[in-house]
Amino acid sequence: MKHYLPEPDDLIVAALHGAASRHAGWTAPEGSARQAAVTELREIAGGRTDLLAQVAGLLLGYAPPGDAMHEHNRIAAELLIDAGADPGAVRAWIEIGGERRANARARPFSRPLPPDERPG
Fold it and tell me: pTM score, two decimals?
């Protein structure tokens, strides 16, 4: 069995996603709570504004308006943008997030079993 070893960027992306989601809650943090969230996201990103944009765009694309998670993901994305994500790069990642959403909801490919493999 081949084991997947995450790239360093994958670990940063996962940490950014987790922290942004934790800070977002269902209402936007304000004042010192918002500043603490933005500071933590900047520290995790370590200057990688491209990864801040990646996570923000994926969150927005995966839960478009009308989706139950939209408001939560929108708040998380705002925190990532406040932390330094490039809004132009965010837009590019939104499309990819939408593609991932569509792929996750697609029915898996299946083929009929050949007659000799069918049960009973």
Answer: 0.83
